[in-house]
Design a protein that fits this description.
214 residues, mainly alpha, Growth Hormone, Chain: A, two-stranded parallel ribbon
Length: 214
């Protein structure tokens, strides 16, 4: 809402940006099946190209790139806001001279991350569970997604409470020109990196436990 949403005579609804996430998912599903899997199959020798854990790892890494991209765009937007002095006013609806389409790359990256992560997650639960528990394990994967949404709300609430202590405007105030939404994206990128590292740490422990003892 605080970016230029005009493309000639057309004004892009701010909420419609999520459409690019859907477009990205459709695109990457096609590319994934027709191009990436055959290439990966030749490299890894695996029937499905990537293992389930490889896919989830790739998805987690791409999600980090999406958050970093969002932070970079917000840093640039705040820079323009400060140059125009909008960080010193209470006006919250002034459109800055930076087009909203600069947000498209982060939505495309989120779509790619969803394709790798969710496909890997569903296949992991499906192939690694007993036949009698296929439905239950598939439901568990959806449960993890819902719990992630609740965790996201908790993180946002905690960050807002901490950053607004002492009368500060916080990272995500009503007037984003006075806040630091870029800090929030960087914080989430840091959490995602820790999650990414922890996943490979656990995998390394499992791999060592499977090595034959000397």
């Amino acid at each position: 809402m605080v970016m230029d949403r005009r493309i000639r005579s057309f004004t892009i609804p701010a909420a419609s940006l999520f459409t690019f996430d859907i477009i990205s998912v459709i695109f990457w599903v096609l590319i994934y099946d027709r191009n990436l899997v055959p290439i990966a199959r030749k490299v890894t020798g695996l029937e499905r190209g990537f293992s389930e854990l490889h896919r989830m790892g790739i998805g987690l890494f791409i999600s980090i790139l999406a958050l970093v991209t969002a932070a970079v765009v917000e840093i640039k937007r705040l820079q323009i806001a400060k140059e125009l002095g909008l960080d010193l006013t209470d006006e919250i609806s002034v459109a800055l001279p930076i087009n909203i389409l600069w947000q498209v790359p982060q939505y495309l990256l989120v779509g790619a991350a969803e394709v790798f992560t969710f496909i890997g997650q569903f296949e992991f639960f499906y192939h690694q569970s007993p036949d009698a528990m296929l439905s239950l394990c598939s439901a568990l994967s959806l449960l993890m997604i819902s719990l992630g949404n609740y965790l996201s709300s908790v993180i946002l609430t905690v960050v807002t409470a901490v950053t607004t202590a002492g009368g500060n405007p916080g990272w995500i105030p009503d007037n984003l020109n006075k806040g630091h939404l870029d800090y929030y994206f960087e914080f989430l990128a840091g959490l995602s990196f820790l999650n990414f590292w922890y996943m490979f740490y656990i995998l390394s422990i499992i791999r060592r436990s499977r090595l034959p003892s000397s």
